[in-house]
């Protein structure tokens, strides 16, 4: 009886951990950043149109919002950038870095050159 209870608890714990996060397919193996940790924004862009993400790797963007771009994906993912949306009110949206198509924004301010090539990791495409 005790064995079944322990087994059941372990199974529930395992399922809970599996549901807590999900590894999504990589969009690219490399990205261009301002530094080796992609911690500094490359540029500021303004959204030209609304963008509604297809899955949790991407961030929603509303027309007119400012987006801080931290990375530009390379190779097969070169149509996507990674960044964070700046809302009109600081507390309006939780800060989260995610991907979006580069075609939905226009560059407004260049901040730092994207000259550092960095390998992407599984965490770059992990969903919470």
UniProtKB/TrEMBL annotation:
Residues 40-110 form the SH3 domain. PROSITE patterns: SH3. The keyword Signal applies. One of its GO terms (biological process) is extracellular matrix organization. SUPFAM superfamilies: SH3-domain (SSF50044). Keywords: SH3 domain, Signal. Gene3D superfamilies: SH3 Domains. The keyword Signal applies. Residues 1-20 form the signal peptide. This is MIA SH3 domain containing. It comes from Fundulus heteroclitus.
């Amino acid at each position: 009886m005790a064995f079944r209870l322990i087994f059941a608890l372990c199974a529930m714990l395992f399922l809970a951990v599996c549901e807590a996060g999900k590894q999504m397919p990589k969009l690219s193996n490399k990205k261009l950043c301002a530094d080796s940790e992609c911690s500094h924004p490359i540029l500021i862009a303004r959204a030209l149109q609304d963008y509604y993400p297809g899955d949790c790797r991407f961030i929603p963007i509303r027309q007119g919002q400012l987006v801080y771009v931290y990375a530009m994906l390379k190779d097969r993912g070169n149509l996507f950038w990674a960044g964070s949306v700046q809302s009109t009110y600081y507390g309006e949206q939780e800060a989260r870095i995610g991907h979006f198509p580069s075609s939905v924004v226009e560059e407004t301010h260049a901040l730092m050159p994207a000259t550092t090539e960095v390998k992407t990791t599984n965490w770059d495409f992990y969903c919470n």
